[in-house]
Amino acid sequence: DIYHRTRLKAGTGQEIDVLGAAAGDIWVCQSKWWTKNKVGVRELQALERQGELVRQNQEIITLTHWLFAYSGLTPEAEAYARERGILWSALPEFNELLDYVGLRRLPELPEDGRAA
After folding, report:
1. How far is residue 11's CA from residue 46's CA, in Å, rounded to a whole number?
2. pTM of this prediction exceeds 0.90
């Protein structure tokens, strides 16, 4: 099952962009379409907190965290992701994945972050 924009409970930071589940394997996925800034450690920690909320409500065999960050991660966030086993993709890597599965590439956004 794949759920889009799942809200775990009331409050800020409780909405998961994509929640995938299959036989105890859960994927908690977030996307950050930031064009001016790279994603930092704080956003990765928020993703992990969301995963823990899911863990409280479901029987899980494996839990995978994946972040799409349009402009990538800060060096500190890259190190944190490696240490914690968090998967992440910036625009080039995500487009390679889309090419591989035969889907349309994501759009290039102008610096102001608005799609044309």
Report:
1. 13
2. no
Cα atoms in the 13 Å half-sphere on the side-chain side of 73: 22
Q: Are strands 2-7 and 62-69 parallel, antiparallel or unpaired?
A: unpaired
**What percentage of the chain exceeds 70 in pLDDT?**
87
DSSP assignment letter at 36:
S
SS (H, E, C) 6-54: EECCCCCCCEEEEEEEECCEEEEEEEECCCCCCECHHHHHHHHHHHHHH
Cα–Cα distance, 102 to 12 (Å, whole number): 35
Query: Taking each helix axis from N to C terminus, what angle separates 75-84 and 41-57, rounded to the nearest 10 degrees?
Result: 30
CA-angle at 26, arms to 21 and 28, nearest 5° = 105
Lowest average pLDDT, out of 5-14, 74-83, 104-113, goes to: 5-14
What is the reported pLDDT for 60? Answer: 83
